[in-house]
Amino acid sequence: MSMTVCVTPAELSYYRQKLQCNFEQVDSVFQGCMENAITLLSEQGIEDYLEGASLVTMIGRGFDPVLSYLEEMPEVASRLGEAMLSVVSQAVWKMSRTPNGKAIPVFLNTIGEVARRLGNADSVCYYIDLLFDMMDKTSKSIHGVHQSYPSPGLSDLLANMPYLIQQLSLSGLKNWIAYGVRNYNNHPERQKDYFTLQSADSRAVLQRERHGTLFMDNERKLDMYMRAFWTDDKAKPSYLVPYSEAFDELRKPQPYYDNLGLRIPDVFDDKNGIPGIDRYRITLAHMAGHQAWSVP
Predict the structure, then answer these.
(1) N or C: which end of the chain has fewer CB within 10 A?
(2) What value does the mean pLDDT of the chain take?
(3) Considering the entire predicted model, what is its pTM?
(4) HEC string of 209-278?
C-alpha cells in the first residue's frame, strides 16, 4: 500500500494556482486532496487531474461536484488508468450542456464505486455511454429540435447505481435500463418508479437479469486459485481483467490475454451442467497454460 506523501507549502501554492476554482471551500480540503493525488498519480496525471477539476468548476453547479471529483478521481485513475481523469471530466462537461445538469453530483458521487466494481477502463467507458444513451432517449424536446426537459429517471438511476452494479453484469444493466426506457419513455412518473426500483416490473426485470456467476463477486477467489495453481515460474500470476459482451454483440469476444493481463467475461452462466465458477477456473487455467507453454 502506498504511503501518503506530504506536500510542501510551495508545492501546494503551485498546484493551487493550477486549479482554476474560486470556491473558498476548496482551500480547507485542497491539501489532503493533493497529498492523495501525488501519492497515486504521475506528474502528468496530476496536471490532468487539476485540469479536469477546473473543467468541473466551470459547469456552474457549485462546489459539491468539484469536491467529488477531487476526492474520487485519484483512486479511479490509479486503478483504471489516468485517461479516466479526462473521460470523467469531459462526461461532466457534456452532461452540463444538457437539461440534465442536476444529475451531475450523483454521477460523480457514484463513479468511484462503479469504477471499483467494473474493474477496467473500457467497462467504465461503456457504462458512461450507456448513461448518455439513456439520457438522450428520455430527455424531451420541444418540436423535436433541442432537448428542453431533463430525463425523469436519470438521477434516480444514478442514485441506485451502487446497488444495481452489485446485482447485475454490465450486459444485465444495459438490458434492465433498456426495458425501462422502452416501456416508460412517455410516462414520467412511471419511469421514476421504475428507476427507483419501486415498481413490480422493475424488480421483476432486475431478477430476470440477475443470472450467472459475476466475476467481481469471485475476483479474490479466482486470483488465489491462479496463484495456487502455478507453483513454478512458467506462468507468472497475471492481472484478471473482466470485459463485457454487452457492447460488442456482433463480434462476441473470446477470452484472451495480452500485456495487461488475462481478459475474461464479466459473467459466466452455468452451461451443460458446469457451474459458472468452474467455467472461470477452466478458462483461466487454459489461458495460463498457453502463457507457459505456447510458442509465439
Answers:
(1) C
(2) 91
(3) 0.84
(4) HCCCEEHHHCHHHHHHHHHHHCCCCCCCCCCEEEECCCCCCCCCCCCEEECCEEEEECEECCECCECHHH
